Model the fold of this input.
Amino acid sequence: MSDPVSALGGAVFEGFAKVREIGPVGMITLRAKADVKGLAAAVKAAVGTALPAVRKIEVAGDRACGWMSPDEYLLVLPYAQVAEAMAALNKGLAGQHFLAADVSDARAVFRVEGAKAVEVLAKLSPVDFAKMEAGELRRTRAAQVAAAFWAEDVGFTVVCFRSVGKYVFDLLASSAAAGSELA
Amino acid sequence: MSTRLAKGGRLIDRAASQEFSFNGKRLKGYKGDTLAAALLANDQMLVGRSFKYHRPRGIVAAGPEEPNALVNLGKGGRFEPNQRVTTTELFEGLEATSQNHWPSLEFDVGVVNNYVARFLPAGFYYKTFIHPRPFWKHVFEPIIRQSAGLGAAPKDRDADRYEQAYAFCDLLVVGGGVAGLQAALVAGRAGARVIVLEQTAQFGGRAVVDGEVIDGKPADDFVAAALAELGSMSNVTVKARTMGAGVYDHGYVLADEKVADHTPGDGRPKHRLWRIRAGKILTATGAIERPLSFAGNDLPGVMLAASVRDYVVNFAVSPGDRTVVVTNNDDAYRTAIALKEAGLSVPAIIDARTNVTGELPAKARALGIRIEAGRGVAKVLGGKRVTGVSICLQAGEGAVIDEIACDAVAMSGGWSPVVHLWSHCGGKLTWDTTNAHFRPDAARPPLNHDGGAMVYAAGIANGAMTTAAALADADAAARAALEALGIKAKAGKVPEAATVVEAPMEAVWIMPQGATPALKAKMWLDYQNDVKVSDVQLAAREGYESVEHTKRYTTLGMATDQGKLSNINGLAILAGALNEDIPQVGTTTFRPPYTPVTLGALAGEARGEIFQPLRRTPMHGWHEKAGAYMEPVGLWRRPYTFPRTGETHEQAVHREVINTREKLGLLDASTLGKIIVKGPDAGRFLDMLYTGVMSSLPVGKCRYGLMCNEQGFLSDDGVVARIDEETWLCHTTSGGADRIHAWMEDWLQCEWWDWKVYTANVTEQYAQVAVVGPNARKLLEKLGGMDVSKEALPFMQWADGTLGGFPVRVYRISFSGELSYEIAVPASLGLAFWEACHKAGAEFGAMPYGTEALHIMRAEKGFIMIGDETDGTVIPQDLNLDWAISKKKEDFLGKRGQMRNHLASPDRWKLVGFEALDGSVIPDGAYVVDAGVNANGQRNVQGRITSTYFSPTLKKGIAMGLLKHGPKRMGEVVEFGTFKNGVKGTLKARVVDPVFFDKDGVKQNV
Amino acid sequence: MLILECPYCGVKAEETELSPGYEAHLKRFGPGSTDEEFESYMFARKNPKGVHFERWRHVYGCGKWFLAARCTATLEVFGTYPAQTSEPPADLVAKIKAKRPDWKGYK
Amino acid sequence: MKRYSVFAIAREALRYHTGWERAWRSPEPKKEYDAIIVGAGGHGLATAYYLGKNFGITNVAIIEKGWLGGGNTGRNTTIIRSNYLQDPSAAIYEKARSLYETLSQDLNYNVMFSPRGLLMLAQTHHEVRGYLRTVHANALQGVATEWIEPARVKELVPIINIDGPRYPVLGALYQARGGTARHDAVAWGYARACSAMGMDIIQQCEVKGVRSEGGVVKGVETSKGYIGCKKLGIVVAGHSGQVADMAGFRLPVEAVALQALVSEPIKPCMDVVVMANTVHGYMSQSDKGEMVIGGGTDGFNNFTQRGSFHHIEETLRALVETFPMISRLKMLRQWGGIVDMTGDRSPIISKTPLGNCFMNCGWGTGGFKAIPGSGWAMAELMAKGEPGPLAADFSMWRFKEGQFIDESVAAGVAH
Done:
């Protein structure tokens, strides 16, 4: 068997900001209502974070849990730890109404880095970045496809569907082209 | 002649000379020039020809209102027609050519229209060219089209790129004149998030040109200080060269930033389209001067008075040595004074007002300028250039009193506020009698999402006509906007501007008042479209009384300047002709954009590779390398076939079919939709969604299912697998995953919200490979890792395991009638698994196959295809799929719809197979004809083809289709109407069973 | 270019992040209903020039359907609320009535 | 009515065009008419015209809230075609198209019908099959269309990017006698002809109510007072629901915004009309030289005549990709109209629950091209009280039966 391969094999672009594909990253879609018994503990056991508030993401090192909708969370973790985390969820939520699905391979993940990273995204998403709160996970649109991002270090982590990974990378690269800074 | 003055010029850098060309002539200008200024500096007054009569046209204005001076700019991939010279910044190497003439600008054959202009009044084409009938298309229309059209059509692909960006603010200030800057200062100091847009490269608007004094200092100082202060505020963004193009609902504003128009080819985007969402919008867009309607007012050399001033003050360019000023207001005297102070001659100021008082006329008199009060221009003299004016009594009919030689005329008919942005979303206007213009009616603003005012007008754009008034108005407007936003403004003093007392203007719509028809036929309203006073009067006479009728009948205001100069003058003429007041007649609707926006900017980054998202499976790159011919399926690309060297697509497809049927075929089926449905109510939910029963499906098994919409029409199909007690996996068609997932969520969220069901679209988590053909099991056995025998994994079951070390889920399902496994692996291993299959399958004759082979094989088996057998009007019963529809269930989506008369009718067309009697392939889309014609004379039909192929397996044409009472008519011969290469024909075919191959399923059940 | 606030995640979403779904509070008629009932469920849509209740999905966000009260003549938005209800909330109805005294109320 | 001709123009030119008479009268309403048409757009005026011409009914008033031709008639992209798939659509649109052929002569008003040819591009295999089906259907319906190969497409439209790369052109459905006409002139020409027959066009007159007695219409309340009528035709696209409300019935119609735009004019570069449905855009070049561009509708009820701008962007993305040379042209003006959409996106020409009251609406995005055929069929319906063959399938009761006239099935679109 071969090693898992991310959508673009780690493509990189350097313009006024740096764009690089990272991954493969472990991701689990967890559907459950916030008041489900044992949810917080199961998430803690799976990725080591608290349950995020509405529109927030709780980050703990290379693991995180993001609020996706009133009954959906996105768990982020190292690719190799997914099976273990799935087991923890299934155990912790046994008997409850929930759905946990491994979506690690269904996503492409990018880092957009640099002091002007926000300008790269401002060309693609109808988001008022100045009003984004600390620790906010924003689900929106990047040009013509769905995307989600949150601020991390000096820049953003951007998640999209795997099949459009190349499209999103090309978009980010075109937006980050040297000389096209917004300010 | 027009020329460059020896000194002066606020905006030019005489040390930086720039070379450019016009109609091949090499000319020189300075950095800071507009192309218009540079042309005038080179005595190039004649720059184009008008639309209809091909009259010679010169530069009239100095800004975006310019109707005449449009040129072709650049060449090749940077060629751009209809570029306005007054808003084009000069750059080194600029190449421009004039438009709309043949063979040359100086000598244009089209000018013949001018000499027969009398025969070509407004709307003449509606009244003629009627007979003979074919002549319109073949003779008249081509002539009209060729003579219209202005600039040349670009030929090449655009060499530049464009981009778009979002921005958000509390207050958007459009206009970087002193009013806009003052508003921005008030808002910026209050801590509001502010964006300021200025369409040109400079700030300050008219005040800096007219030498206004603010707080005791030149306006230039005020502007510099304001920009410095705004620049220091982190909450304020100031953008030059950015035009506020349009205001849309809920505070959405489009703005066009000309990033690299003046530095072409420097690698930056040419334009950036800003999509701004503003809490409130403040429009401080100034005003536009109106021409006066006198005979010959369109000759090159007749210009707007303030524009003449702009050229002199900003660029040190004199439009003429001797300039006559014609006016109905005091402001135009500033032009006379500026010209005189620049050492130029002003032979006379012709003022339509009988009583000329005020400071500015006094100053003009003191400078020794002759003032002709109560007079008007009877006619401008000259051909391609002004040579003089004859003057008359304004109150008279145009009898000439005197002639004055001159080479330029500066005219002013008063000022119209730029109300476009106020009006785009429905802001209403009020008529201001004092200034004879429409201005925003603050009581009736455009409304925002909360029902409050969305736009505030400020300064001259709001009818505050002096610098002092404009500053005070802008200050107040900004404060009002802030208050509505809930932001507290800081106390502050409004800067004070020195005020020159001006006497009232007097509305003059026709000069002279009682002009004869001959004169009125030479008074231009719309220069570019050649609409004259006489045309508007004709429209009114003929009953085109609505302002919209007049505009459309005469084409007034429909040229590329969108009537910036002509609308109010035309309206006044119409009101006069109808004997109504101007406000009763009303204005036409203001539509975005304020000035034209390049289509490339509106398309943005979406071109070439990123025109649309292209969805790729993990094996996409492999297919491309293998030379696959791809076809779009939704946003996916799927291999249609994998042609080998020398093969046609058809040959390749046939090879793939035969190989799969005889040996082994591999298909990338990753695009198939996969949706997990889980929960205590999941079975109940799926029973509502599918026409069949899914709740009873045992764990480990698969079942084919159909989904209908509420109308009852078949919308999707696929195999459902029961994963565990609470979990099902639903396969959808390739294009259907997102749609079906949304459909599920719609019902769960909006109808059955108390049902405990969760869904997850995991389509992209898995790559899926169909291993198909007699050798399929051999391949899997060679990969090894799990038992895929007939006993362990019978047809319509699934199992988890490993194959060749890959974690897999294997579905024993078939869409080809062959022994077939569909194998799902994590997408990140998809390519490796695909390659492993090819490697291991080589000895069994493995070949990839594409969608066309897939389609043929399913048609040979009589399997339906969503999108082929269905088209949104077909119900499962039409396709003899009753076996997949539960009779027991009380309800499922679509059941009630299918009970309606038309859908329950026994006369519906139903699925059958067709075989042409001659063995040929029946043409795609052909209809089965029936006897006679219907009440509309159309041939009656009784069926149609839904899929038709040459079957490489059976070596003949096969087809599926729908036929009235079809299944009861097996063996009958029917007739198809065919139509190929323009020739109608017929083709006889026999009605047969739609399963053409291996009816008993021997091959798949091994 | 509308902005509607998603009642689930609080995002002031712009129209391009949403997908429209036409009339809200439709009552589904299945088997057992009359042809007239079924026709009215499928086709007889409300089309007022004024206050209208409609469905939107925050498709590029949390994926949830929500409902909005909006004026079709001015595009004023009176409020948004979750989809799991068969009629508009009373406080929203009261708010609209206060702003639009002529409005005849939700029917 | 004085006839229009080149001689009339020459005669008038000599007296500075002071002798032209009004194109239509602006009378005050009479107390009663044999028939009232509500709505003086193209469809309403055409209905009145054919009532007079085909049935001799000339005691007719056409009542208009604003100005004649001021609604969708003057806001569309002027495309005329009849290459529809379903029999009822093909019949009425072909009737309209054939009437357009001689409309200028019939009305003595040049409506500039320009049968320059119309192409619907096939850019997926699915679309190819859909158009092949249409071509076969059209051949049996008596509509002259053909399937043409990419090389011929390129010949007809030299500026097209035939090879994609994204959506290569695989061929096209071609209607050689499809084209365009001058939209305003259609309304004006009909209005002038109606007025000449003695009909009253009453502008600036808003209908406020419909009066009936015993289930039969008696007249309309208007801003100019009550006007009686024996028959009432409601032809008010975009506001059909509102007027139907006054007449006491509900329509299966929703109002949405449809947008269009024109570029600045350039010299002729495209002689045919091109529709690219895969990427959602269509374009033609007007006689003035403007590229006339249209796209899709909004998805929400809207009466503002302003659409959402992202639809314009989507359309332009598609067209810039399809015709790369337009990238450096400029958008001169964009606007919106309110169209009414039915459950199957096909029109309604129908009797109504109210006696002697007839409805013509639901043309969606396809109204302009239908005007003469729609007027013809509506006049027949009003005159006879029963639909003729052209209108028979467009009953407002078809939805209950599930008998749709669905044009979307062959990758076609309704506009």
About this structure: The first helix of chain B runs from residue 35 to 41. Chain B has 27 helices and 52 strands. Chain B touches chain A through 53 residues (CB under 8 Å).
